[in-house]
Structure formats: C-alpha cells, structure tokens
Amino acid sequence: MASPSPSTSHDINEPRDGGDTQNTKDEEKKDENLLECNICLDTAKDAVVSLCGHLFCWPCLHQWLETRPNRQVCPVCKAAISKEKVVPLYGRGSTKQEDPRDKVPPRPAGQRTEPEPGNNFSGFGFGDSGFHMSFGIGAFPFGFFTSTFNFGEPRPNVATHGTPMYMEEQFLSKVFLWLAMIFIAWLLFA
Amino acid sequence: MTERSPSKRRLHRELLSLIKEPPPGVSLDAEQIEQNLFLWTIHLEGAERTLYEGESFQLQFKFSDNYPFDSPEVIFTGEHIPIHPHVYSNGHICLSILTDDWSPALSVQSVCLSIVSMLSSCKEKQRPPDNAFYVKTCNKNPKKTKWWYHDDSV
Known about the structure:
Strand order of the largest sheet of chain A: 2-1-3
Oligomer: heterodimer
Distance between the termini of chain A: 90 Å
Strand content of chain A: 5-15%
Distance between the termini of chain B: 44 Å
Number of domains of chain B: 1
Radius of gyration of chain A: 32 Å
Number of strands of chain B: 4
Shape of chain B: globular
CATH class of chain B: Alpha Beta
Strand content of chain B: 5-15%
Order of helices and strands of chain B: HEHEEEHH
Largest sheet of chain A: 3 strands, antiparallel
Mean pLDDT of chain B: 91
Shape of chain A: elongated
Largest sheet of chain B: 4 strands, antiparallel
Helix content of chain B: 25-40%
Mean pLDDT of chain A: 70
Number of strands of chain A: 3
C-alpha cells in the first residue's frame, strides 16, 4: 500500500482538529445533562436507575412512587416500576454520601447474585459429583449405602440406566405415583 | 433562602432553559414570571400550515408547592381562546397529561408542545359539544373536573 503524501494527510487532519474541539465541548454539555435527575432536573443525588434505564434522585423517585402508590410508572417512559426494581448507582468514593433529606427511607440496596460455582470433576472432594458416579455403578448394597449415608449433598445423582439402583428407583417412583393418585382420588370423592 | 424549595428550584431551571432555547411559537415574559414563579403566562403562536396559523393565544400555568409531583393547572386566558373540540370557551383544556397522565418528567415546555400539537392536528374548528353545559357548571379549577378522555384523534 502506498503511504499518503504529507500534504494530503495535512489536509485531512486540519479541519478534523477544529471539529474535535467543538465536539468535546458539545459532549461535555451533553454529559452534564446525562447525569441530571429526570424529576428535579439537578444532578442526581443518591442516584438510582429504573430497569427501563432512566436516572433519578432516590428522594425524587420515592416521592413520585408515594404520590401514586396504586399506579407506579416510570415518569419518563411509563413502564411499570417499583421500589424493588430500581438499581442504585455507586460512583467511586460514593460510600460516604451524606444526604440531609433523612425523611426518605434509605435507598434500596444493590442486589448481588453469587456467581455459580463451576463444576469440577477432580474426584477428591467428598460429596462432589465425580465421587458419586464412581460408587453408584457398583453392586447394589454398596451403591445403596453410599447414597443413603451421603451427608455432603442433599440429593444423590440419578442412577445409571440398567443398574439395580435404577430399577429400585423406578419401582419407588411408581409406588409414590400410585400413592399420590389414591390420595387425589380420596380428596375428590371423600 | 427562598431558593431552597424544590418546586422553586425546578421552576427556576425550567425558566432558564425556556429563556435560553424557547421552542418555536412559545414566548414568555421572564421578568413577570420571576416576580411570582408559581404563576406563568405564556404566549403561543398557532403553528404554520395549520388552522391556527397567524393566531396567538395566552396560556396560564398555576403551580402548587408540590410541583412537579402535582400537575400544573393550565388554561387558556385572555380574549382569544382557540376554537377547538377539546378547548372550552372558558379556557379549560381537555388533555390527559394535565391530570391523569401527568408525570414529573413533563415540563412547561412539553406541555406547551403538546398543546400546540393538539391545536395543529385539528381538522375542523368547533367548540366541544357540551361546551354550554360545562362552562355553566364547572369548577374554576380545571383539575377538579372529572375529565373523560375518549378522543385521541385531535
């Protein structure tokens, strides 16, 4: 590929530089508006975001929710919202935010879901799935004992197809199914 | 410190932005409004290429201390009340965002734009069918009227 001649690149760059400063100014102005509460039009204090993505001060939104408790909608887009369905925004160093409007209940806390633990098949931990598999395939009494005296996990894995344990489980499930049906019939006809 | 009240703060902000960037056809007397932030008079021009082109109207906004959680009281005032199927001859306006559908994210500007657009979409100038009865019996405050919003076309 041929490199562009110096004059061409200069021509391209010059107007762009001028435009860039203009753009930055506009963007700064826009950024200020972006962080304004949709109710008081000030920079959002104790900011919360609705699930539909609209930003409010928590005291402002709370007051709106109280104004119409039976019809709680987002002031901007009228999507259904509620106290439980807003997310607080924590900026850096915002943990010690002091808000004088203490009549308002505390801003709802953020919800944290623990990440799901990944399956590991190392086979050494007691109560880990690899452990069950290796013993479940064994002879009936042995398999029965491992699953009965299994304190590590609340439910054993499903037995492999064809083993005695599998047959036993099938039998038990049939018994319980019949019990349930008899019970329902009794409920209906008694 | 009168600036402290949140409704005043918000009204002041709205006033500043309306002075800075007034929407087309909307003008106001800022000095008069600064005297009393809770009572605004706004001048509206009928939009071009509509039935109201060339006409001008006056809107009156009354705000409560609870603004923007309470909607403002908005009526046409002055001699010239537009002839429109949703505007009564006493200046009351049948517009859902002024009562049931009010939201604190709305503003003087958005209400003005809604009213201009309501006028603009009118096909035939006429008063509401129940005008005489309503004007005789209604409360002075349009927000006390139990409006029945049924016609979205105009």
